[in-house]
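Example 3.2
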Amino acid sequence: MTFFKMTNISFHYAGGSQSVLRNFSLQLNQGEVVGILGQSGCGKSTLLRLIAGLEEPASGSIVINGTTMVDERLFVQPEARGVGMVFQDYALFPHLTTAQNIMFGLHRLSRTERKQRLQEMLELVQMESYGNRYPHELSGGQQQRVAFARALAPEPAILLMDEPFSNLDANLKEKIREELRQLLRAANITSILVTHDNDDAVAICDRIVHMTGAVPVSASY
């Protein structure tokens, strides 16, 4: 069953004459992890920004779990899309503890529900003993786990990951990739991983889309 669908998406930045994306289409099933692989400048991160609602396409449509997020008549704002994001630099709030970072997007829940969800997330990323620590007191791998927990805590419909391993050394990266694969399977969340590293995509993803310039050149692995 198709859970996510973007159809004929085109985009160019204001003042730019060349398309960053041109008639790009992609479908994901529920729980599928798809990698977007390509060199810098081919439009990978722009693709994530369009899905999240941080940019508006020139044409095309995006549908998540049966709900249209954007088409020629409609544009749903980012906060209403149910999209979780993990950034390259993790973007943790330095003045908040691990627990406070994870609970940041849970303000709509009751206090009891927030505490319950926090405990679930800490257990999922195996960080139960680190709830009171600040980001600077955590290793790079631990910071990444907190970033994933924060993104997953509000139970997003889809998770977007933008080069999440770029700040890790080779040995830690290999360990974290396996942890992330297990984490995504346990959460059963539909996910898109943007990377320029083929090893990242192969280790984690069910399928890989290769991008060159403004068009995908392959949509299978």
